[in-house]
Write a structure and sequence with these properties.
It is a single chain. Helices cover about 50% and strands about 0% of the residues. Belongs to the acyl carrier protein (ACP) family. This is Acyl carrier protein. Keywords: Cytoplasm, Fatty acid biosynthesis, Fatty acid metabolism, Lipid biosynthesis, Lipid metabolism, Phosphopantetheine, Phosphoprotein.
Length: about 80
């Protein structure tokens, strides 16, 4: 499964854009994202990947998410924690 591709599709859906326009380096701020959009994206990711991403509205790490690639890395990390030992 290509995690980045799935995240790109989720982000594109959130901002009503073609997934082909969304790259790893797409800036969330330039795409018009706000903190609520980030959280809604995280919820969609949790549902799609059946994982728990440890973020909430007051988590300071939300502000550290600057690009689509940043979100993909969070997913990769969460999937790694979910993997059997």
């Amino acid at each position: 499964m290509n995690i980045l591709k799935v995240v790109q599709e989720i982000v594109a859906g959130q901002i009503s854009r073609d997934p082909a326009e969304i790259t790893e380096k797409t800036s969330l701020e330039e795409a018009g994202y706000d903190s609520l959009d980030v959280l809604e994206t995280i919820f969609a990711i949790e549902e799609r990947f059946k994982i728990r991403v440890p973020f909430d509205a007051n988590d300071p790490r939300v502000k550290e998410l600057k690009t689509v690639g940043d979100i993909a890395r969070i997913v990769e990390s969460a999937l790694g924690e979910k993997a059997p030992a």
